[in-house]
Write a structure and sequence with these properties.
With 442 residues, this protein is of the alpha+beta class. The chain has two domains: 99 residues, Nucleic acid-binding proteins (OB fold (Dihydrolipoamide Acetyltransferase, E2P), Beta Barrel); 305 residues, BirA Bifunctional Protein, domain 2 (2-Layer Sandwich). It contains eleven helices and 16 strands. The relative contact order is 0.10.
């Protein structure tokens, strides 16, 4: 049996016997010649079969022609034949004249979705939706992005962790928690690896990262929320302020964007008409209070009772940064302690503020980062200020009773980064299998 060749490697192969495997994309069943576009995970190629005729011009017995005529879109098969380079062939400049086909798995002729199907319908048939090259490319981009981030971390001596996703208590608050039966008791799905990545600091790990699942029982139906998502987290010791965390964060993003642009930039431009821009360093930094003033001067008052920014405010400040600095990213810094978790360090000169930030990318928040409070007595008082019982946090507070260096870190949503990088309409497109309030299948 001829060894299978990936379609992307056909251009470099010599004319002659060849074998390719994939699924049927299209069939053109003409009177004198048949064409099949076969697609595999690497590309597409045209298969050609001239029909066989008797001397009197009537159709002759032609088993291959009969097999091609019976093919349904999506059928998986192996095709053998003669590879021929021909620059007139629009699809890659090569084609294969068929000697035979072997069907591995036939498809049902009626396809349940089309290119213009609604996104929720496409999610019902996600495995078919991902056969579309444009949709599949998203996850090649994701692979490149994560590989670049891991390369950065490893080259800078970070340790990779895999923290537990079953917890005895809340990691941040008791809101938005999924509760699950756990033998004779209850457990909770982790909202983030926050407590455990901080535990690595008194353990002496210094610099850590994790890319893993997180869960939020958030009944939101927006284009940017999910109940299960991939969180990109990092935590570092021996910092002076949240500025050190922002520096790590922006350098990591630049490394990832550069890798995506180098490997996929031309395809992204061709398929989405999006230019991947590698952001310049440093990213703009604007204190939240100043950002709110800027937004108000643009004619938008943030309609919130608390001190936070809202989605429209994020869009407005992003537009300002784009116009003023030509930048797609902005760090909003110095958030009020009233809206930040108890473990965020408060500003030494103004305890109403924290050494924290949100990172806005193309008008949407993708991450929160901060310097953590490492002094256990201060941490206990800040927990009390938030209405938390320190007794219930003892396992966490113990991390700080035996020596811990000043530290900080961030958590970032992977799918949000992809969605905004590619200007996709919603998070579902950038998630392999989306989970939301009404979706648990497939």
């Amino acid at each position: 049996m001829t060894e299978r060749t990936l379609i992307k490697n056909l251009a470099a192969a010599s004319d002659g016997p060849i074998s390719v495997s994939g699924w049927v994309d299209t069939v053109r069943d003409q009177k004198k010649v048949q064409f099949v576009v076969l697609r595999d995970e690497s590309g597409a190629v045209q298969l050609v079969h001239p029909r066989v005729f008797n001397e009197d011009g009537t159709p002759a017995e032609d088993p291959i022609a009969a097999e091609i005529s019976a093919l349904a879109q999506g059928t998986f098969l192996t095709a053998t034949g003669e590879l021929k380079h021909d620059e007139r062939v629009k699809l890659g400049g090569v084609e294969i004249k068929l000697d035979g086909i072997v069907v591995a798995a036939a498809a049902i002729p009626e396809t349940p979705i089309a290119d213009d199907s609604a996104v929720d319908k496409r999610m019902d048939w996600r495995f078919l939706d991902l056969r579309v090259p444009k949709n599949a490319l998203i996850f090649r981009i994701q692979t490149t992005l994560e590989h670049a981030w891991r390369t950065y971390w490893v080259e800078h001596d970070f340790i990779e962790l895999h923290t537990p996703k079953l917890m005895a208590s809340a990691s941040e608050s008791k809101a938005e928690l999924f509760e699950v039966d756990y033998f004779d008791g209850k457990a909770y799905l982790a909202q983030s690896p926050q407590f455990f990545k901080q535990m690595a600091q008194p353990a002496g790990f210094g610099k850590i990262f994790e890319v893993g699942p997180a869960f939020r029982a958030d009944p939101s139906f927006t284009s940017r929320h999910a109940t299960e998502f991939t969180s990109v987290d990092s935590e570092i010791s021996w910092i002076d302020s949240h500025e050190d965390v922002m520096k790590l964060h922006e350098e990591l993003l630049v490394a990832g964007f550069q890798a995506v642009k180098d490997k996929h930039g031309e395809e992204i431009k061709a398929l989405w008409d999006v230019e991947v821009t590698v952001p310049s360093l440093p990213f703009p930094r604007i204190p939240l209070a100043e950002a709110k003033r800027i937004v108000a001067e643009r004619g938008y008052e943030v309609p919130r009772a608390d001190d936070d920014m809202d989605p429209e405010g994020e869009r407005q400040i992003a537009a300002y940064v784009r116009e003023t600095y030509g930048h797609e990213f902005v760090f909003l810094t110095d958030y009020a302690s009233s809206i930040r978790p108890f473990y965020h360090m408060r500003n030494a000169d103004d305890s109403s503020l924290t050494n924290s930030y949100d990172l806005i990318f193309n008008g949407v928040e993708i991450s929160t980062g901060a310097q953590r409070e490492h002094r256990v007595d201060v941490l206990i008082e800040q927990a009390k200020d938030k209405g938390l019982d320190p007794e219930e946090l003892n396992f966490y507070l113990d991390f700080f009773r035996y020596g811990v260096p000043p530290h900080g870190g961030f958590g970032m949503g992977l799918s949000r980064v992809l969605m905004l990088m590619l200007h996709l309409p919603n998070l579902r497109e950038a998630t392999y299998l989306f989970r939301g309030p009404t979706r648990l299948l497939p």
